[in-house]
Design brief:
mainly alpha; two-stranded antiparallel sheet; 21 helices; 2 strands; about 0% strand; symport; Na/Ala_symport; transmembrane; transmembrane helix; cell membrane
């Protein structure tokens, strides 16, 4: 098992971080830095259109597709992964987390655009898509799609077991409820939602995700308002440590510059899943009139996950000072809870626990759907239902600790998914560029949106007069 752990640590070190960084930079250049040039427009087309009826065809609304995708990415990585990045890479790791998020937007945009472009309708009349479809239809390389699909379908079994264990151990530690009971209750809840398909998942996540994110981030904002004077120091700490080795501070052991960058990149990518190929499976079902328009929602997913939720966690930890206390290095996973407790007492710890439970539960809901879509692609609709049953039982097995044996394989399986997806994005990069240029040059989309906005502004000015 030590050999597996060593190989896992190596491949998720320099090799994969370099692959993601280079491919993210390549797509950013190829797409003309669109995530920066059109950022205001992207926000207007996403958050600014939540209450507008979506154009085009699809199975769920664009917002439901986003919240389904966010259910998978907002979770333990935001609450537990951020303190790990700080403890092993120092405060400067947060800067590199932001950098990889900005670059990763291009990858997330590309894979979601391709997912919508090459999607199709299944036997239930639902739109389905994702890397396995654009590998098969866009590249004519079904073997690559089968590789991705099979690897993801199998990887999600230990992944769901780990999530089940996380929720059960959290509930047991906070409320003293036996792990098996929590596992069974979680499995029942998951079954009720996932067997209703993407429409039911979308309806649950569009309420669930914003509600839990607002409570968690809202708690962090309250802390920020209580501690406004710490904001300049927070940014100084991050920027001053981003380009230099971090000295020893109390319980913090210090970090070399390579570690600062590595931990920031690794935790950032692990958090927003840019390039991993999972989020496009949710985005493929969205109602939209052009693949690029749904790609904007994927960009906003990175903003919410990394630039907002991860930054909120970082502020609470760094401003509270818990990261420099004795024993912090050995107990990094509990730092977020301890930091909230520092400000809110016992209520703070309970707030983090409840947020973690709901984030993990919503993650399980969506990854079961992802896994079922792989079984559907490989073997048909009946196999998808059978795989859902396997995943539901995996929640119970994970709750009682069965995941520990296969934990070491998780990161290796993730690499087996990520590599074929990055290959496909790069090979189809010209297609993404063509679709992006079509959207921004056509009178049907970008120019039409701009004209509508100008007319609305003029009408508003006339009414005010």
């Amino acid at each position: 098992m030590k050999g597996i752990a060593d190989f896992s640590a190596w491949i998720w070190g320099i090799p994969l971080i370099t692959l993601l960084l280079v491919s993210g930079l390549y797509m950013t250049f190829k797409l003309g830095f669109f995530q920066f040039r059109y950022f205001r427009y992207i926000v207007g087309q996403t958050f600014g259109s939540i209450f507008r009826r979506p154009k085009g065809e699809g199975t769920v609304t664009p917002f439901q597709a986003l919240t389904s995708a966010l259910s998978s990415t907002i979770g333990a990585a935001n609450i537990v992964g951020v303190p790990a990045a700080i403890m092993f890479g120092g405060p400067g790791a947060i800067f590199w987390m932001w950098v990889i998020a900005l670059i990763g937007m291009a990858l997330k945009f590309a894979e979601s655009v391709l997912a919508v472009e090459y999607r199709e309708k299944n036997g239930n009349g639902e739109f389905v898509g994702g890397p396995m479809y654009y590998m098969t239809k866009g590249l004519n390389m079904k073997w690559l799609g089968v590789w991705f699909s099979f690897a993801l379908m199998i990887e999600l079994i230990p992944s769901i077991m780990v999530q089940g264990n996380s929720i059960a151990s959290t509930v047991e530690a906070t409320f003293s409820i036996p792990a098996l009971w929590t596992g069974i209750a979680t499995a029942i809840l998951v079954s009720i939602v996932v067997f209703g398909g993407i429409k039911r998942i979308g309806k649950v996540t569009e309420i669930f995700v914003p509600f839990m994110a607002l409570i968690y981030v809202g708690g962090a904002v309250v802390i920020l308002l209580m501690n406004v004077q710490a904001v300049p120091e927070f940014f100084m700490l991050i920027f001053s440590n981003a380009f230099s080795p971090v000295p020893v501070m109390g319980g913090f052991a210090g970090a070399a510059i390579v570690e600062v960058i590595r931990w920031g990149f690794a935790r950032g990518l692990y958090s927003n899943e840019a390039g991993l190929g999972t989020a496009p499976i949710a985005h493929a079902a969205a109602t939209t009139d052009h693949p690029v328009r749904q790609g904007f929602w994927a960009v906003i997913g990175v903003v919410v996950d990394t630039l907002i939720v991860c930054t909120a966690t970082a502020f609470v930890i760094l401003s509270s000072g818990v990261w420099t206390e004795e024993g912090a290095m050995e107990n990094s996973s509990a730092l977020t809870s301890l930091a909230f407790e520092e400000y809110f007492g016992d209520f703070g710890a309970i707030l983090v626990t409840i947020a973690l439970i709901f984030f993990v539960l919503s993650t399980i809901l969506v990854v079961v759907f992802y896994g079922a879509k792989q079984a559907e692609f490989l073997f048909g609709l009946k196999a998808a239902q059978g795989m859902q049953v396997v995943y539901v039982f995996a929640v119970i097995l994970g709750a009682i600790g069965a995941a520990e044996v296969i934990w070491g394989f998780l990161d290796i399986m993730l690499a087996a998914i990520l590599i074929p997806n990055i290959i496909a994005i790069l090979l189809l990069s010209n297609k993404v560029k063509d679709l992006k240029n079509e959207f921004f040059s056509s009178d049907e989309y970008y120019h039409k949106d701009r004209k509508v906005k100008k007319r609305a502004k003029r009408w508003k000015a006339v009414r005010e007069e």
